[in-house]
Amino acid sequence: MIPIRQPAVDLALLRRFVPMDALAEDSLQRLSQAASIRALAAGQTLTRPGQALALSSWLLDGMVQIDDADGLSRTIVHAADPRAAHRLAGPPVAMANAFAVTASRVLCVDGSLLDLLLTWEQAGGYAVAGIDEAIPDDWMTRMLQAPAFQRLPATNLHALFQRLQPVEVRSGEQVIREGDNGDWFYVVVEGRCRIEHQGQQPRALKLAEYGPGDCFGEEALIAGLPRNASAVMLGDGRLMRLARSDFLELLKEPLLMRLEVDDAARRVAAGAARWLDVRLPSEYQEDPRPGSQNLPLRLLRAKTGTLARELLYICTCDSGRRSAVAAYLLTQRGYQAAVLDSR
């Protein structure tokens, strides 16, 4: 876990801006270490079209003019305008020419770290799961009945069962610890496991409870992030675990459909697919894709029932990280899902 130092930029300042206003206190403290304030003289350039960017920027004081790459659109942003709560520019590439009209100050934040923290927090938005009393004893049968496993090639399934490693666990044992690196994917063979999130709360919040045949631990492996929740055994039991490299090879990549932008757009135009933007509503409202549906990653588990089974959902965000997690989770639940290919 990243150590927390004294804030480099005041947390209240960060909270003024979208999407940082949605981050928890500990995430803001980490982000503050990668934040700075830049002064711009009148006429000084902030970004140029096509410029590679590592930082996201927001206007604190003054006035900035933003011209799109072809010069057909011009936007003037004043620090007092509601528009100033949103990013002026951010990674990976600047899409417009932006410069200071007057002497101005700009808040700059590490864009990759911001995206990591957003993904980490939102991927932890488990729906509170009810307990199925009619759980079959055969964990392998239940696991294979899941839609995601039914889509796997037979060779992958064969390799999967060869590479799964048995683990004996005791009551109260913490199988996964919130904040640790994600190294393993787990399947419950015997016993029950509670998923809980601590964060800054005095008491851990129960998110879900899993039994034989249920899987957990995939989000950190897909997003390449620390664990966003803990897993605690409710009694003695047995698990199977799969190493991260095997999970990515045998489960993630075969199940994660990737589409090029043109292919995705054709499917949407034909009515066979829909854009599903998994950013926060505050991010989506500022820059919505025409015809898209907004369903934040943190609400995905609770709201999948509102999605149409007959459509392919093409998941999007601003980096590909959150959308990859969303597409995998939808596929696990039997939906058709894809992510825009940004590799």
Structure commentary:
The chain is an alpha+beta fold. The chain has 3 domains: 11-120, Jelly Rolls, CATH 2.60.120; 126-254, Jelly Rolls, CATH 2.60.120; 256-340, Rhodanese-like domain (Oxidized Rhodanese, domain 1, 3-Layer(aba) Sandwich), CATH 3.40.250.10. Helix content is 28%, strand content 29%. The protein contains 12 helices and 20 strands. It has helices at 11-14, 25-32, 111-123, 139-145, 147-150, 154-163, 218-223, 244-255, 261-269, 281-286, 300-303, 321-332, and strands at residues 35-40, 45-47, 55-61, 63-68, 74-78, 96-100, 104-110, 165-169, 174-176, 184-190, 193-197, 205-210, 215-216, 230-233, 237-243, 257-259, 273-277, 293-294, 312-316, 336-340. It has a 5-stranded parallel beta sheet. A 4-stranded antiparallel beta sheet has the order 2-6-4-5, with no helix packed on it. It has a 4-stranded antiparallel beta sheet with strand order 8-15-10-13. Helix 3 runs parallel beside helix 12 (321-332) and helix 6 packs antiparallel against helix 8 (244-255). The longest helix is centred in the middle third of the chain and has 13 residues, at 111-123. The protein is globular. The two termini are 26 Å apart. The model is unreliable at 1-7 and 125-137 (pLDDT under 50).
